């Protein structure tokens, strides 16, 4: 089986529809076709100001949502990043392979540093830690959304550079980005990606939102000039985003939806979509709440996941340390 690995940051109480469609659902699909590793990135979550109690809570909540969405700890290794020390160990070595210039060019660094008053060194070096997260496990594929393409490219570059300088050590991974669902847009600003860190929640549908809130957000989604329901991401980004979400959650094609809604109004589409989203998220939300009622069991699952992850990651760190000349 090919190996797959990916992570989600513990930066919010709830994941959003973009994380669910763009990342989580791919994880769930891959646990049957791949040897799969999925982790909760809590080291990454402290690159911007954070509250310790909140981070602890969010780490467990993110893990609960992984399982609630369908990840099975028997079939996939689910773990918390900070519990596998190798990530930090490999990251240091890769920091010495990366250059300041290439990190400054990362668009996510440019965006996030512009939004934050205090810019930590970690915010800059974060993509190197991400490269370590990935390369430690020698994955063949890394399922992510479109926004991570640049970071994946950096990971590949660092792996190649390390291998060229110190000998074949890392597998150069391929990004696995599903074109149709790789970027779900904000409902209030359909030119920006739906994001945990966006300042307002109005354009973001959270997995754990109450059905009423979901319906309200979809109803007030920004639509476009004209009345025709058509798929045209350039000219009609709002409606196209709604169609993308609809298609992703029902499995029907965008074309089929467009012909189904021919001659009908935006309002009709929104009412139906609200129903689709609410019913798709309902089991995930309910299961998350159940899992969070007993966090001891959740923590046991994460302990087992970390132990399995360490077996592989520690071996890679040994190879890396030997390659660079550490005693
Ligand atoms: P933050 O704003 O804190 O960076 P985020 O919403 O980007 O949060 P991440 O934890 O950084 O979430 O990303 C987790 C995964 O979800 C990544 O694979 C990312 O590419 C994917 N993802 C994030 N936002 C979207 C989106 N709007 N559409 C599709 N995939 C997304
Ligand atoms: Mg992100």
From TrEMBL:
Positions with a binding annotation for L-tryptophan: 133
Positions of short motif 'KMSKS' region: 193-197
GO term, biological process aspect, one: tryptophanyl-tRNA aminoacylation
Molecular function via GO: ATP binding; tryptophan-tRNA ligase activity
Reactions catalysed, as given in the entry: tRNA(Trp) + L-tryptophan + ATP = L-tryptophyl-tRNA(Trp) + AMP + diphosphate + H(+)
One family name in Pfam for this protein: tRNA-synt_1b
Entry's localization field: Cytoplasm
Sequence positions that bind ATP: 9-11, 18-19, 145-147, 184, 193-197
Record-listed E.C. numbers: 6.1.1.2
Cross-referenced InterPro entries: aa-tRNA-synth_Ic, Rossmann-like_a/b/a_fold, Trp-tRNA-ligase, Trp-tRNA-ligase_bac-type, Trp-tRNA_synthetase
Coiled-coil parts of chain: none
Keyword set, alphabetical order: Aminoacyl-tRNA synthetase, ATP-binding, Cytoplasm, Ligase, Nucleotide-binding, Protein biosynthesis
Class of enzymatic activity (EC top level): ligase
GO CC term (a single one): cytosol
Assembly, per entry: Homodimer.
Known function: Catalyzes the attachment of tryptophan to tRNA(Trp).
Family assignment from sequence similarity: Belongs to the class-I aminoacyl-tRNA synthetase family.
Name this polypeptide is given: Tryptophan--tRNA ligase
Gene: trpS
């Amino acid at each position: 089986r090919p190996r797959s690995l990916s992570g989600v940051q513990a930066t919010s109480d709830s994941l959003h529809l973009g994380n669910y469609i763009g990342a989580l659902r791919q994880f769930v699909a891959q646990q049957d076709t791949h040897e799969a590793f999925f982790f909760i990135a809590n080291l990454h979550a402290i690159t911007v100001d954070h509250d310790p109690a909140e981070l602890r809570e969010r780490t467990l909540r993110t893990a609960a949502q992984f399982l609630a969405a369908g990840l099975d700890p028997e079939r996939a290794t689910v773990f918390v990043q900070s519990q596998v020390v190798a990530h930090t160990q490999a990251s240091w070595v890769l920091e010495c392979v990366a250059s300041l210039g290439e990190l400054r060019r990362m668009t996510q660094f440019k965006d996030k540093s512009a939004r934050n008053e205090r810019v930590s060194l970690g915010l800059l070096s974060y993509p190197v830690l991400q490269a370590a997260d990935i390369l430690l496990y020698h994955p063949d594929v890394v399922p992510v959304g479109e926004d991570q393409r640049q970071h994946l490219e950096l990971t590949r570059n660092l792996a190649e550079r390390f291998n060229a300088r110190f000998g074949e050590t890392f597998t150069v991974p391929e990004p696995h980005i599903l074109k149709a669902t790789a970027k779900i847009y904000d409902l209030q600003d359909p030119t920006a990606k739906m994001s945990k860190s966006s300042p307002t929640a109005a354009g973001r549908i959270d997995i754990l939102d109450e059905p009423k809130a979901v319906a309200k957000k979809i109803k007030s989604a920004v639509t476009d000039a004209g009345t025709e329901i058509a798929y045209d991401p350039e000219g009609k980004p709002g409606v196209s985003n709604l169609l993308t979400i609809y298609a992703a959650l029902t499995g029907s094609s965008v074309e089929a939806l467009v012909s189904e809604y021919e001659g009908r109004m935006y309002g009709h589409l929104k009412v139906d979509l609200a129903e689709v989203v609410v019913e798709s998220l309902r089991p995930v939300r309910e299961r998350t709440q159940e899992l969070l009622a007993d966090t001891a069991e959740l923590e046991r699952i994460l302990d087992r996941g970390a132990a399995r992850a360490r077996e592989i990651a520690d071996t890679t760190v040994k190879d890396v340390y030997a390659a660079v000349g550490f005693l």
